[in-house]
Amino acid sequence: MLRGTVLGATDFATYSPFVQGQARFSLRDGTVAPIPPDQWRVLAMEEQFDAVLYLGSQVSSAGAELPRELCADADYMKMRLERMALLGRQNDIDTLKRQCGTP
Predict the structure, then answer these.
(1) pTM value?
(2) If you ran DSSP here, which 8-state letter would residue 37 be given?
(3) What is the DSSP letter of 22?
(4) Which of 45, 26, 42 is nearest to 34 (CA)?
């Protein structure tokens, strides 16, 4: 459980490889706009998640592959690839496509 813990109060960006050192964006009226660094706010882990289940080292968790069932789910893959594209994460898109064997 995260609420009321040191980990819960920590900025989500500290633990997310998708957020560390990356630009932050807002979505207003269907338009994505970058947020200037001086306007960034802490996104506390406890406000993003209820709990964390830790099953190994940070190195091993960073390279987790998507289960075959999700690779085969066209709607899920479309959503995930669109989100990665929205963040400009082409390397992650290429990796996911390679892992799932999709063009």
Answers:
(1) 0.42
(2) G
(3) -
(4) 26
pLDDT in tens, the chain (103 residues): 889 988 889 888 777 655 555 677 888 888 888 888 788 877 888 988 898 887 765 544 445 567 888 899 999 999 989 988 888 888 888 888 988 887 6
Three-state DSSP class for 95?
helix
Q: Interhelix angle for 74-86 vs 90-100, to 10°?
A: 160
Is 25 within 8 Å of 33 (Cβ atoms)?
yes
DSSP 65: P
Strand-pair partners of 27: 32
Number of alpha carbons in the 13 Å side-chain half-sphere of residue 43: 13
Domain layout of the chain by residue ranges: 1-63, 65-103
